Amino acid sequence: MSEKIRVLIVDDQALIRTGIATLLARKPGIEVVGQASNGQEALDLVAALDPDVVLMDVLMPVMDGVEATRRLAERGPRPAVIILTTFRDDAYVFRGLAAGARGYLLKDVDHKALADAVRTVAGGGALLGPEITAQMLPHLGRLAGEVEGSKPAAPPATAERLAFLTERERAILGLLAQGRTNQEISDALLISVGTVKNHISNILSKLGVRDRTQAALWAQQQGLG
């Protein structure tokens, strides 16, 4: 990641894009490198500009934010995507996170909180606010079947998956559920960031989830956070 966190803003309303860009431009260590009006433009600009973080709207013409997020996630772990929308609906939250987003914020978020969110996901963390988590957890089972194109194999039972984890992996999973970054986990457990990353890779494999956000959601559901 470059010295400044490079941000791409994706929204079909130019006024909103400009407003967010103006606010973030005032924040130290953050640089807005581009703006896109739909998901397809976002994919093209990510390839051209290599941002660290993408702020992604949901409902847009040509390609919506969920599909664009899914395609970005298929390319690799960068950039980190934050869904930034006016919708609080459970289905939008779940689909955005299931597609690979590392966070979900409403557009009325405070500008300081938005900048902090950008820094959090750029540092490897995830945004799982308690109100969003509490809102979506009761519906995870129902919504999972509604995610377009998703037909996952039946996962192992909860007890079996927990049994696969070492004591250290359980500790890291609990910190993930709290939204801690790799550096914060490293500091808390007195291990290197590289070791944290290796443990997280093992955790994802053992739980059968795609990324740290899904692992954190699963952990919170089990009361591990």
What does this structure look like?
- The protein is an alpha/beta fold and 225 residues long.
- It has two domains: 5-139, Response regulator (Rossmann fold), CATH 3.40.50; 154-221, Winged helix-like DNA-binding domain superfamily/Winged helix DNA-binding domain (Arc Repressor Mutant, subunit A), CATH 1.10.10.10.
- The protein contains twelve helices and five strands.
- The chain has helices spanning 14-25, 39-49, 65-75, 90-98, 111-122, 130-136, 140-144, 158-164, 167-177, 182-189, 193-207, 212-221, and strands at 5-10, 30-36, 53-56, 80-85, 103-106.
- Strands 2-1-3-4-5 form a five-stranded parallel β-sheet, sandwiched between helices.
- The chain is globular and about 50 Å long.
**Level of helix content?**
40-55%
- Structurally, the number of domains stands at 2
Helical stretch tally = 12
Give, in spatial order, the strands making up the sheet with the most strands.
2-1-3-4-5
Mean pLDDT: 83
Strand proportion: 5-15%
Compute the gyration radius: what is it? 17 Å
Largest sheet: 5 strands, parallel
Named CATH topology of the largest domain: Rossmann fold
Give, in order, the helices and strands: EHEHEHEHEHHHHHHHH
What structural category arises from helix and sheet content? Answer: alpha/beta
Kindly report how far apart the N and C termini lie: 28 Å
Provide the low-confidence segments as ranges.
150-156
- What is the correct CATH architecture of the largest domain? 3-Layer(aba) Sandwich
Assigned CATH superfamily of the largest domain = Response regulator
